């Protein structure tokens, strides 16, 4: 199966009307949308998603932020989508993110950085299973041979 990643537009991205812009960037790059839902998660769910960060001093604030409103959870597919998705997103601290990246263009504070993307293929598998227990959608783009050699 082609590589997949989990991307989440955080509550600030939804509130600020950045959903269309962000989806558009992934679409235009050539990645395929394989899962999409608007969902408000509860505290235990957010804590599971960020379990690896539970010892960090910012953990509680991070969980509060993620449960503060609906998020857009997505699965994107394509060659190298985990690493390239992270490049489209930009560095964790938006003041250090390059212009042209999502965080570099649309955010300032690290605790309001608009979007999440899986940091490895292994995390992507775990996060997709957590957020999409029903599994991603199964469809193939008719543009495939115009994007892949
Ligand atoms: P990432 O989202 O770029 O993968 P992680 O280190 O996995 O960055 O951290 C997860 C999220 O936790 C970040 O996107 C950010 O919202 C928040 N975060 C990370 N470091 C800090 C911090 O030092 N202060 C406040 N929030 C932080
Ligand atoms: Mg991370």
Automatic annotation (TrEMBL):
Instruction: Give the enzyme's EC designation.
Output: 2.7.4.6
What range(s) does the Nucleoside diphosphate kinase-like domain occupy?
A: 2-139
The record's GO molecular-function terms, alphabetically, read:
ATP binding; nucleoside diphosphate kinase activity
Show the InterPro entries listed in the entry: NDK-like_dom, NDK-like_dom_sf, Nucleoside_diP_kinase, Nucleoside_diP_kinase_AS
Member of which family?
Belongs to the NDK family.
Name the chemical reaction catalysed here: a 2'-deoxyribonucleoside 5'-diphosphate + ATP = a 2'-deoxyribonucleoside 5'-triphosphate + ADP; a ribonucleoside 5'-diphosphate + ATP = a ribonucleoside 5'-triphosphate + ADP
Name the cofactor(s): Mg(2+)
Active site feature: 116 (pros-phosphohistidine intermediate)
* Cross-referenced CDD domains: NDPk_I
Q: Where does ATP bind?
A: 10, 58, 86, 92, 103, 113
For this protein, the record's PROSITE patterns field holds: NDPK, NDPK_LIKE
Tell me which UniProt keywords the record has, alphabetically.
Answer: ATP-binding, Kinase, Nucleotide-binding, Transferase
Do you know which HAMAP family this protein is assigned to? NDP_kinase
What is the name of this protein? Nucleoside diphosphate kinase
A GO biological process of this protein is: response to hydrogen peroxide
Name the source organism.
Answer: Arachis hypogaea
Superkingdom of the organism of origin = Eukaryota
């Amino acid at each position: 199966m082609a590589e997949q990643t989990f991307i989440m537009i955080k509550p600030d991205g939804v509130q600020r009307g950045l959903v269309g812009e962000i989806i558009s960037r992934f679409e235009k790059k050539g990645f395929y949308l394989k899962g999409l839902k608007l969902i408000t998660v509860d505290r235990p769910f957010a804590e599971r998603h960020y379990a690896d960060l539970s010892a960090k001093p910012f953990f509680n604030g991070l969980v509060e932020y993620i449960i503060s409103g609906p998020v857009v959870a997505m699965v994107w597919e394509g060659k190298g989508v985990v690493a390239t998705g992270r490049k489209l997103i930009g560095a964790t601290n938006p003041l250090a993110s390059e212009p042209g990246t999502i965080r570099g263009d649309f955010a300032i504070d690290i605790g309001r950085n608009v979007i999440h993307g899986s940091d490895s293929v292994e995390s992507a598998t775990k996060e997709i299973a957590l957020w999409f227990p029903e599994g991603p959608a199964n469809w193939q783009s008719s543009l495939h041979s115009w994007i892949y050699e």
